[in-house]
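Supplementary Data S3. Sequence and structure tokens for construct A.
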Amino acid sequence: MKFWNDWGHEVLELARNAARDNKKNRIVPRHIQLAVRNDKELSKLLGSVTIANEGVLPNIHQTLLPKRVGKGKGDIGSASQEF
């Protein structure tokens, strides 16, 4: 029974961290999903489990993402517009 207590504690701790990263005070099913999917061991253990109201994690192939040209924040406003 100790295994399940440790497992539950680990999931809640990771979900709390995910909620904090998203600047939220409450843990919602989405945070539990993020915690499980981003942890290698938990993902292996709970990979086929469906969590209600969780949504989906975005999985965008690297070739479809825009290429990063700039190296910092200074490049954000440097583009000029022509009319």
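Construct B, processed identically:
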Amino acid sequence: MKTILISTVLILSLFSLSTLNAQNTFGEYLSTGSATTRGLWHLDGNSNDVSGNGNNGTDANVTYSLTNGRFGQGAAFNGSSSMISMADVASLKPTGNLTVVGWALPTSTATNKVIVSNGFRNDYDPSWCWYFISVESNGYALFQMFDRRPSWNEYKSIVGTTVLTDGKFHCIIGTYDGNYLRLYVDGKQEAISTQWTRNLNWYGGYTSRPRIGCSSWGGGDNTQPGDWFNGKIDEVIIESRTWSDVQIAKYITYTKGRFGM
């Protein structure tokens, strides 16, 4: 009887361990996100959007592999021509509450390296509108929102305090609640803006360019990609709600293989 009991406990322990290890390997955000999830890219061998909105990406010089991922496969970007592009759609253009998530492992930060962005820039109108999270040349995370029409002052940038060039994946999250921008690294808030109550206005007639691995504007006509990311990216999320501290903590816990949001 004792032998049977010990064997049963051992089997259950091994099952629990294997389950935990599997969740640690594939600790992705819930497969289809929530009703406010505008885009969810696991980057497991492709750039398909599993949010239900159909915002699948088009890849350019992106390499997928298990060694490039934090959860299963991930994507490697070469810092000069790698990017994932999505179409200009309303679902990726939140006007109020916003959460942007990206797991990133930068291998070079000679200049600003954008993880995920959406927006446009027209110098003649002038109309600028965008949001992005990136890794700055000093190795810190940055979250910026910009809505210029006609004032130069309608933008906010906040910068983190953790150096991200340590050879490890880090979770960068930017949130906006209609009043303040907040920046989180690995679940901890590292920056908050002064009050900013201007929502994003996606002015008609301009094409926004959602992209992973580079900026949505640049070049001589401000339509070309720039700020190329050099390194690995996994798990990108865009939501039209503001994740709270509790939700972010729960998300980070889930990625360790415990439970979801």
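The mean pLDDT is 80. Helices lie at 2-25, 245-255.
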